[in-house]
């Protein structure tokens, strides 16, 4: 089994943190997105979608999309449960993870992918001949600001994102907020519950993965 | 329990088909997105994200995002398994469902949301004051065309989207392709494997849900 990974991007980081929380070691191969290594013929032969992370099983099966890779490991190594235990928890964890992906990660990606010259003509992960759309950076910035407030509201009511237990929703949110910071939309300092939660997340051993 | 639903949109349809395949009946409330009923104060009190579908449990818990709602029902009613049985199947089903959401549903939504006057200033589901970006309709059209080819390639090799078994990836793909048709990007008639699969999907009782 091999995990195609890139240490400089937020989505592969979600998988690394997930594996660290599970205590599972997987062989990784670094593919530098900034240097367009994911668009090389060599990597296209691995996964024609050309996205990172991609997991290749020993029988050659390719699983891409960060949370799909996490689902594979959740089923293979059920403890600790990171997608929720009860039906309600499972629904809430998935709901929050998806909210955070759309309202956070997607918005930060809109900013960097449509603004940074590195991504000229590849404004969508895995695509070439896909021009940047400057208005999307504005949509992304607005989206991120609203996202931080909503996350803070939730964390004022709840110890972890999806309730009383740490889950993949926290992993996704941590990567989303750090990604938002990275693209230049800082978290306002008055959002105290969010700041407190970020400190708790950063203190976990897995945050270094 | 109540499912806030809209019979005219592709995402709520995914949940209805899923429930039909499970044989589960749930009380539904229609919220007309075209008429902006999801943006009303009444619905905002139900779910501040203002998106459809939304599931409200008897204890008041709100679960939104189509596949999060499906996850709740998968855990509550495990048979038949629609998210895969083994770890590999679970990873593949989630991977395909997400590919189809991004490469199909999101692209079709880009077209209609950034082109149709109904969605002026609400180009993203649940948001107001979000102007349309005409270039996104072009990105969406190109994306859909590439998506159809990729889906056809997969269906030339595999009876169902994610392998030998019907799954939520088929439900998502059926809604994505119908949505693509609906926004005016037709499936090319030479994609025979895709056409054959569509016929098989349409023949299932659940397709009428």
Report on the structure:
- 2 copies of one chain form a homodimer.
- With 209 residues, chain A is of the alpha+beta class.
- Chain A folds into 2 domains: 2-76, Glutaredoxin (3-Layer(aba) Sandwich), CATH 3.40.30; 87-208, Glutathione S-transferase Yfyf (Class Pi), Chain A, domain 2.
- Chain A has 7 helices and 4 strands.
- A 4-stranded mixed sheet of chain A has the order 2-1-3-4, with helices on one face.
- In chain A, strand 3 and strand 4 form a beta hairpin.
- In chain A, helix 1 packs antiparallel against helix 6 (168-182) and helix 4 runs antiparallel to helix 5.
- Chain A is globular, with a radius of gyration of 17 Å.
- The interface between A and B is large, with 38 and 39 residues.
List keywords for this structure.
homodimer, 209 residues, alpha+beta, Glutaredoxin, Glutathione S-transferase Yfyf (Class Pi), Chain A, domain 2, 2 domains, 7 helices, 52% helix, 7% strand, globular
CATH architecture of the largest domain in chain A, by name, is: Up-down Bundle
Largest sheet of chain A: 4 strands, mixed
Mean pLDDT of chain A: 94
Number of E strands of chain A? 4
The strand order across the widest sheet of chain A is 2-1-3-4
Number of domains of chain A: 2
Percent in strands of chain A: 5-15%
Oligomer: homodimer
The third-level CATH topology of the largest domain in chain A is: Glutathione S-transferase Yfyf (Class Pi), Chain A, domain 2
Low-confidence stretches of chain A: none
Structural class of chain A: alpha+beta
Rounded to an integer in angstroms, the radius of gyration calculated over CA atoms of chain A is 17 Å
**Gross geometry of chain A:** globular
SSE ordering of chain A: EHEHEEHHHHH
